[in-house]
Amino acid sequence: MAIFLTKESKVIVQGMTGATGMKHTKLMLADGTNIVGGVNPRKAGTSVDFDGTSVPVFGSVAEAIEKTGADVSVVFVPPAFAKAAVVEAIDAEIGLAVVITEGIAVHDSAAFWAYAGSKGNKTRIIGPNCPGLITPGQSNAGIIPGDITKPGRIGLVSKSGTLTYQMMYELRDIGFSSAVGIGGDPVIGTTHIDALAAFEADPETDLIVMIGEIGGDAEERAADFIAKNVTKPVVGYVAGFTAPEGKTMGHAGAIVSGSSGTAQAKKEALEAAGVKVGKTPTETAGLARAILAG
């Protein structure tokens, strides 16, 4: 079992025929992802060869679902057209839309997030501005390197792409059930809390690693959820302990004022919920290792 993505998942790629889409479709296929099609209205009816694997191109998400039974879409569409692409995926009622695109206007992200809700949340959105998610040994939907870890019993949810990769590498000898990069934009689909709930329900996840960043109150809300709903051990890391007060930091667009949104405030909230929090990614990995060692 895994959360959100398994070897049975049938994946399409919106924007597959662009340079970035081509590059990462090839990498996802190499990781064993069951990619059943791409979507590009201008190239419908053609196919693309990836090292001997022929992937058909469809004119719409709805057509791709009808012809292949696809249930996951990975979106590599440029920022100006990403909202329309995600809305199309929602209208087609695909189960999961993984929005990799960086630089989508916050208004657009808010619009397609609200649109998904108005349609009954039949489409789970991960991202935007995220590395996607991977279930090692089964499927990879996004840009997470597939060769830095192995299947295991740790669940990872992270705001930061690069810290996702580092944590997977730090704990590569233990391995991961699933790793989810939720993105650091102000408006995202799947949250820390959504992933925590899924890992809590997953019988093949024994421990959860949660990575956050300064700014906002997502980590404080996650701490409250953990205290009330999560029985599995959780370890955490919050990026930004050395961030200067009042300065906008990183892709999260996080502004620190007073104690609200600071790494220290988030650390204290998580520790109050029973989460062990490291001051560095390596220290956090060590905490996870110690818990699993018993």
From TrEMBL:
The active site is at residue 251. Substrate binds at residue 165. GO terms for biological process: tricarboxylic acid cycle. CoA binds at residues 17-20, 43, 100-102. Residues 4-104 form the CoA-binding domain. Keywords: Ligase, Nucleotide-binding, Tricarboxylic acid cycle. SMART domains: CoA_binding (SM00881). One of its GO terms (cellular component) is succinate-CoA ligase complex (ADP-forming). It catalyses: succinate + ATP + CoA = succinyl-CoA + ADP + phosphate; GTP + succinate + CoA = succinyl-CoA + GDP + phosphate. Its EC number is 6.2.1.5. HAMAP family: Succ_CoA_alpha. Belongs to the succinate/malate CoA ligase alpha subunit family. This is Succinate--CoA ligase [ADP-forming] subunit alpha. It comes from Streptomyces corynorhini. The lineage of its organism: Bacteria, Bacillati, Actinomycetota, Actinomycetes, Kitasatosporales.
